[in-house]
Amino acid sequence: MSQARFSITATALDQRLPCGRPLQKISEYSSCAPDRRAADDLLHRLTGKLNDFVREKKLKKSESREKILAVIVREARHFTALDLLERLGKSYPDVGKATVYRNLPVFVASRIIKEGPPDVDGHVLYELADGHHHDHIVCLDCRRIFEFHDEAIEKRQELVSDQLGFVPREHRHIIYAKCSYRSR
Amino acid sequence: MSQARFSITATALDQRLPCGRPLQKISEYSSCAPDRRAADDLLHRLTGKLNDFVREKKLKKSESREKILAVIVREARHFTALDLLERLGKSYPDVGKATVYRNLPVFVASRIIKEGPPDVDGHVLYELADGHHHDHIVCLDCRRIFEFHDEAIEKRQELVSDQLGFVPREHRHIIYAKCSYRSR
DNA sequence: ATGAATGCAAAGGTTTTGCACCCCC
DNA sequence: GGGGGTGCAAAACCTTTGCATTCAT
Description:
By secondary structure, the first copy, chain A, is of the alpha+beta class. Helix content of chain A is about 40%, strand content about 25%.
């Protein structure tokens, strides 16, 4: 059984923080933008995607919408509506919260973000829809969210669904676990 | 690869309902109590479990708590706090909602119920903790919740977690799919 | 000029909390 | 009689909506 089939990504890149301290917000960890240049590139690409969608659906351009997108790309990997509001308030206090709530569905519809698993408090977690499907593993100690992908599980799900007479559309799979940070 | 490793249980037992009609509430389907005698047996067993917990934690007996438990066992397989409130209101209108919200954590702590996957509207779904772990497959058409268990996926999760340096504690796995009811 | 998009504030729906009272041990 | 448990109502919390206004096309 090949180990190469696993892949993992730490959403939180700041590995220096002590793991034992519980955080108030998952997002405190996921806020570290990994690479400014990469983020800018991505923002540029996604802005294009947004514009395409806006044109296609005969919507109108809006500065607020682009500000929101910028904050998402630069600061958030996994975020709730409230996280986003809070961050947006720091960079762009002029954008109202109703606008945020009204635009999240637009970003989802344009496949720029997608709804992920619910966070620890039960709120919808959004994340960038980068095209690469992954599932989540959340550390119960440090609350960081990691991503994993395992082809064997994916395949098995399809098999199970099929055997049971279902056509699978999507799934959410979260493992709550303890990372070994503490014991290292 | 043996097929016998799959198991499935329909939470909703009323198979006569037309599948095409979307429901307002998941619970409308999961409300069909399968067998009165079995439910009473279970209630008796769980009441004992509750009493043990109450004694152990030096809490006190309460009639409301037992009423709530009775409604859970008799009417609910998968339910949100609000579902429970609504049903409770019919059988025991004298029990206040604060009491329900305050007791749900007690039932969870005593391992009588557990938090399940979030429902379609994002609310926490509780379910009886019957000791048999299972995951869920939800039909996007008829909204019924089915339970499945696949040992291969379970094992694989442990392997993945272990390889990545995590000690898994629990997980939630929901497949959103379309059942073949319509096309039959 | 038309209708999308916005900010604000008010309303909505769900869960939690404060408080006085009740009841179990 | 001490402290958990309760009901009620108020508050807290997050999200949606109404409305007048602004802005993009």
